[in-house]
Amino acid sequence: MSHLAKTALITGASQGLGACMAKRLAKDGFSIAVNCYPSEQDIANAHEVAAACRELGAEVEVFPADVSDFAACEEMTKKVKERFSTIDVLVNNAGITKDGLLVRMSEAQFDAVTSVNYKSVFNMCRHVGAVMMRQKHGRIINISSVAGLYGNAGQFNYSASKAGIVGMTLTAAKELGPRGITVNAVAPGFIRTPMTDVLSEQVREKCLEAIPLHRFGEPEEIAGAVAFLAGDDASYISGQVLVVDGAMSM
Ligand code: NAP
Q1: Between vectors from CA 137 to CA 132 and to CA 142, what angle results, nearest 5°?
Q2: Is 158 noted as a catalytic residue in this protein?
Q3: pLDDT of 136-185, one tens digit each?
């Protein structure tokens, strides 16, 4: 791998979609900055993802940081820039769920989900956006959800956070566009990851009925959409939300 390889920073990449995106972008020739939550288990998982990226020929390093923490994101951005010189692609992927019906939802449930899923996107766009502005190029890809576009009963906090990401994507596309930076969102439907593995068989069956392709998506199918938006073929696409849901929300 040449030292001129572009660098992609992916948040929440110790498992699930983020891990899959890291491997796909490594295969596409990017150097990879793997962010994970700073717990022992997540760091160990992130190192496994890093090893897989290295086997694909990528330069890679793990950067543990809680993306809901503004100062931690600033520190991580500095470290990634020092290690790789540029940050060409930022994928804001980290996310959690704490589901519950609106009238039973606690303030803690709401705050936890909005700070990890939504405020993190501000934190990362704020710091990495400044780096990209100076570089005069960059791609930001925010992972939203169909729940943010159409709502989902039981996910008031999650839907709010994912809808907020769309607003941030559109505004950042307008503000950063003049510096050659594109900003897009990907809105997955139901994808087979640890996040959806916890769904009951009953919920799973109900979901499948609503999906014309009659299957859950695979992580590789989201990673493919991210790779497209990060790649040369998407150079004139900005301010868009790419829905990848097997026609579920049509
Ligand atoms: P996942 O397997 O649970 O992965 C999410 C990752 O984010 C985990 O590695 C998690 O670490 C990490 N994370 C959580 N809080 C963090 C924090 N404060 N700082 C840094 N990292 C943190 O979920 P997934 O299915 O891959 O989801 C990835 C993204 O896609 C999320 O934004 C999710 O909302 C979105 N999405 C997923 C689906 C789907 O069907 N799977 C559909 C629509 C949208 P821990 O393991 O420590 O929590």
Answers
A1: 65
A2: yes
A3: 999 999 999 999 999 999 999 999 999 999 999 999 999 999 999 999 99
Whether 116 maps to a domain, the answer reads: yes
For residue 190, which phi and psi values (nearest 5 degrees)? Answer: -90, 115
**Whole-model pTM above 0.85?**
yes
Residue to mutate (ligand 1; options 9, 10, 17, 119; most atoms within 8 A of CB): 17
- Per annotation, catalytic residue among 37, 118, 158, 236: 158
Helix axes 120-135, 70-84, angle to 10 degrees: 30
By CB neighbour count within 10 A (0-12 exposed, 13-18 middle, 19+ buried), where does 37 fall? Answer: buried
**198 occurs within a structural domain:** no
Q: Is 191 in the pocket of ligand 1 (CB under 6 A)?
A: yes
206 falls within a domain = no
